[in-house]
Design brief:
Chain lengths: 497, 463
């Protein structure tokens, strides 16, 4: 069942490429059909999930290396898989008007969907790495092929940065493989019997390699510099996937690999992680405040939002904290991953509307858009409020849990870090209000006459994301009920039960 | 002692094919020389079938000098498949040539030499195998009789002859030190010999092996021959000899020098570092795809030297060498087949290839990303094995060097991918077609490279 979910998009991609009749709208139709089918399957999986590692498949792949095709879902991966299925479907709907090389475009996104779902389902380090790298390759082609501006340069920068990161990750994984007894790449086995329990030096080195690789992907300060150009020059749907799904691979990796497999090292260096997270929060927010380009602004708020997740995961690792608070921090981090995927996905799709109408992202050249495009303005306002964490929307639930968890650990350092990170919310609130004020209110700018209201396919793609964000904000229980056992499990790995 | 000649059936089949082909070529009229290609192809197919049949048997030695074991089977299989692909490619290039038959026969003889190189368990077999693998290749390099081809062949020959003499000196020295030429007894006796002399002999022996492998400092012929000779022959000389060279290097490392592993490992590790780094640096700004690929093969040779360095440690070394060499051969062959099919040598010539021939462009992307080591292609699995072998063998720093080099190599492979997709052809209209057969070979190689990666478990266990 899970393998079908993972590989269905890839199979459809192959069909789209192989059948010449599937061009133009037909290719898009196949894409939407495949993404819808996958969403239905993920929903069925969610309903049928009964705790633990569900829908497990374990096959031998490279027995010499003890690497297997091992997939399964738990409360950590299932929300992200659901997010993936939703976001890809909505990106397909958003791309209904796409006209350039549609077949390849659809096939590429389907390929990326398999890579994303596979990564969240992987329970084997080598399999995780395979999907991690495939996502980089796929996104490179999306940016280079369908982007705008200096797309070749941005795509190359993206590829080189994240590929170097992935190689550090690979080195770390090989370290874990050699540290495990017996040697294995299997995550479940490694989690059960963490490697390097008696060798803190080696564990620190391996954690450094793994964390460096994941930090590039997340991205955290100071390895975030690939993100703004990649976002600016990517097509809207590509940006939405990049921010909504691909960035999560980094933070998911921290929670899935780094914390359970290297619990000792994670606890020892938790304060470094907290510091990196805090700097990302503040730096991302401050730099976003100074941006004139809409997409760069959203990109830097992503650095800020990912910073909260890293901060929470770091604080959860800090030894001596209250267990309940640590679990809350992890739950908040996972909720933030889902929330950020929904909200930032919506924001990037909305920024695509600006590009579609006026071919520019410069905030200074718009103004008074609300009058010409009221629905567009309302959607953007909701997305902006969700992103800054207004109560009633998903961002609030996530960030509240993160702060409650971080400060609730009762450790002085965590309390200080949490208090400083709250400043980040203040800054993002300011910058989003400034954004709404400059673009949608006031006197019309030079490009404002070009901006027409959202069209059907755009509304159909963006509105569901915001509805889901509201839903998570108002009735978070079903989501949290899924995540909480998983975060309790992660914290129990850290504390050694 | 096993003197059962049937153990050498695959080699005998190749030799018979070569002799038959040569005889037939002498009598056939020019327009019907293609029959020789069929003869040679059949010989290769028969060799592959015999290899498959033999691969189930227990490992052993033939005539106490030739190993019939999994490494030899792998070399037989990979060399057979690669040469078969080159014969198919050569059919399109040599058709109607006055000496067409000779091409196939020389290819077959060079392939035979390569297999013997891989299987030799005695230095007195290694030396003639080296010559048999090299001499036909010199002739093939200069086959076109044009200025560049002749220069390439001359450079190739002089370098091979010089380094071959050094290797002979190394063989002599090793015989003097141990009193035997067979690998295994020599390995038992070497620890008692003077250390400096053993190191000296190792370096001399490596000279010849590195020439075949295309490793630094014996790599100077690689870019010149690859650029100067015809595209099909460039495919052959950068792919097939390496297979034999690395299996032979592994065997030498594991059987002759395990007793002096520390010294051997350090020498080879330094050579590996130099090979991959220089290969990558030189490839950076090449605008000629043949030179780019040539330097890429040099850097790949560097990665392949890593498991050779830690071969004595046991563990994953053998699997890593054998799998990587097979993965490399398939992927490199695919990339060169694209060059043969497209018939262009400059990066600019590949502008807009995706529009002219989407299948060929996709094959190129898969092969180039494969050479980078992107999952799930075969080279990725090879690279994981190499990294794990290096780290496990106590050479963690070498694993880091491999990773850094891999990251650097992405840059020049991407330089080739970019024009394929996102640049309009410079000479619209004069785009021209692509070779059908070569396109088929390239696509097949790309598919095999992905399948080999996905199904690597089965392959590795069997090997």
């Amino acid at each position: 069942m899970l393998s079908v979910v993972v590989f269905l998009p890839l199979a459809v991609a192959a069909v789209v490429l192989a059948v010449p009749a599937l061009r133009g709208r037909a290719a898009l139709g196949a894409w939407i059909a495949a993404a819808s089918a996958d969403l239905v399957l993920v929903a069925i999986m969610w309903i049928g999930y009964r705790g633990g590692l569900g829908y497990e498949t374990r096959l031998r792949w490279i027995p010499t290396l003890n690497a297997g095709y091992h997939v399964g879902v738990d409360g950590l991966s299932l929300p992200l898989m659901a997010l993936t299925a939703v976001l890809y479907l909505l990106c397909a709907i958003y791309s209904l008007r796409e006209t350039t090389r549609v077949r390849a475009y659809a096939a590429l996104f389907l390929f990326l969907e398999t890579a994303s779902l596979g990564l969240f389902a992987a329970q084997d380090l080598l399999l995780f790495f395979v999907f991690f790298d495939l996502s980089i390759v796929g996104m490179y082609f999306v940016i280079a092929g369908w982007g705008h501006g200096e797309r070749a340069r941005s795509a190359l920068k993206f590829f080189l940065y994240t590929f170097v990161g992935s190689l550090a990750l690979l080195l770390g994984f090989i370290g874990l493989y050699l540290g495990g007894e017996p040697h294995t790449f299997d995550l479940v086995d490694l989690t059960r019997k963490p490697p390097f329990a008696a060798a803190p030096g080696a564990a620190a080195l391996v954690l450094l390699a793994v964390a460096a690789g994941l930090a590039v992907k997340t991205p955290t300060f100071p390895v975030h510099t690939w993100l703004p150009p990649a976002h600016t020059d990517a097509p809207a749907a590509g940006s939405a996937i990049l921010a909504g799904i691909l960035l999560k691979m980094g933070t998911y990796g921290f929670a899935r690999v780094a914390m359970p497999v290297l619990p000792g090292a994670w606890q020892r260096y938790a304060w470094v992680v907290v510091a990196v997270g805090l700097v990302s929060v503040l730096y991302g927010a401050l730099v976003a405040l100074a941006q004139e380009n809409l997409k760069r602004l959203i990109a830097y708020t992503s650095v800020n939002h990912m910073g909260y997740i890293v901060l929470a995961l770091g604080a959860a690792g800090a030894a001596g904290g209250a267990t309940g608070a640590r679990e809350l921090a992890v739950t908040g981090a996972v909720t933030q991953m889902v929330s950020h995927g929904l909200v930032t996905g919506a924001l990037f799709l909305l920024s695509g509307v600006f590009w579609d109408r006026a071919r520019a992202y410069d905030l200074g050249r718009y103004g008074g858009v609300a009058e010409r495009a009221p629905v567009f303005a309302r959607l953007t306002a909701v997305a902006a409020f969700a992103s800054l964490g207004l109560p009633g929307l998903s961002g609030f639930i996530a960030e509240f849990q993160i702060f409650a968890g971080v400060i609730g650990t009762g450790l002085t350092g965590a309390v200080v870090a949490g208090a400083l990170a709250v400043l980040g919310i203040l800054i993002t609130a300011a910058l989003f209000l400034r954004l709404l004020h400059r673009v949608f209110l006031g006197r019309p700018g030079e490009l404002t006459p070009l901006v027409s209201d959202v069209r059907g396919h755009e509304l159909g793609a963006i509105a569901p994301l915001l509805v889901l964000s509201v839903l998570v904000g108002v009735v978070p229980r079903p989501l949290l009920a899924l995540i909480e056992p998983a975060s309790a499990a992660i914290v129990s790995f850290l504390t050694g039960r | 002692m096993d003197e059962n000649a049937l153990g050498l059936l695959p080699e005998i089949l190749l030799l018979a094919g070569a002799v038959l082909g040569l005889a037939a070529g002498a009598f056939l009229p020019r327009e019907r020389q293609g029959i020789v290609a069929w003869i040679c192809g059949t010989a290769l197919a028969a060799e592959l079938a015999a290899t498959v049949a033999a691969s189930g048997g227990p490992p052993g030695m033939s005539f106490a000098a030739y190993a019939v074991d999994p490494p030899t089977h792998v070399a037989r299989g990979v060399v057979g498949v690669a040469t078969l692909a080159v014969v198919v490619l050569a059919r399109g290039w040599a058709r109607g040539h006055r000496r067409e038959a000779e091409v196939y026969v020389l290819l077959l003889l060079a392939a035979l030499g390569t297999i013997l190189l891989a299987g030799s368990g005695d230095l007195l077999v290694l030396v003639p195998a080296y010559l048999l693998a090299s001499v036909p290749a010199y002739a093939l390099a200069g086959f076109g009789k044009d200025a560049r081809g002749t220069e390439a062949a001359l450079k190739y020959y002089l370098m091979g002859a010089f380094l071959g003499v050094l290797m002979l000196a190394g063989v002599t020295l090793l015989y003097g030190l141990s009193g035997t030429t067979a690998y295994l007894p020599m390995g038992e006796r070497l620890p008692g010999a003077p250390g400096a002399a053993v190191a000296c002999a190792a370096v001399l022996l490596l000279a010849g092996m590195l020439f075949k492998a295309g490793g630094v400092p014996a790599h100077f012929w690689v870019p010149d021959v690859t650029e100067g000779t015809s595209r099909v022959i460039a495919t052959f000389v950068t792919t097939v000899p390496k297979i034999g060279a690395f299996v032979a290097l592994y065997r030498v490392a594991a059987e002759i020098f395990p007793g002096v592993a520390d010294r051997w490992s350090l020498i080879v590790a330094i050579l590996a570092t130099a090979t991959m780094t220089l290969g990558n640096l030189a490839a950076f700004h090449q605008d000629n795809v043949r030179r780019l690929l040539a330097y890429s093969t040099v850097s790949q040779a560097g990665y392949l030297l890593v498991p050779v360095a830690v071969a004595a440690h046991g563990g994953l070394g053998r699997t890593a060498v054998l799998f990587y060499v097979a993965a490399y051969a398939v992927t490199n062959l695919g990339a060169f087949a694209v060059v043969v099919a497209a018939g262009r040598d400059t990066l600019a010539g590949y502008a807009g290839l995706a529009r002219r021939s989407p299948g060929l462009a996709l094959a190129l992307v898969v092969c180039l990303l494969g050479l980078v080591g992107t999952p799930p292609t075969a080279v990725f699995v090879g690279k994981v094995l190499v990294l794990a072998a290096a780290w496990d063998g106590g050479y963690g720093w070498l694993a880091v060097v491999v990773v850094v080099n891999t990251a650097a190599s992405v840059f020049y492979y991407l330089r080739w991918i970019v024009p394929v997709y996102w640049r309009a052809p410079a000479d619209a209209g004069a785009g021209g077609g692509v070779g059908r057969v070569a396109t088929g070979v390239a696509c097949l190689a790309a598919v095999i490279s992905v399948l080999l990666g996905c199904a690597s478990g089965a392959v590795v266990t069997h090997g």
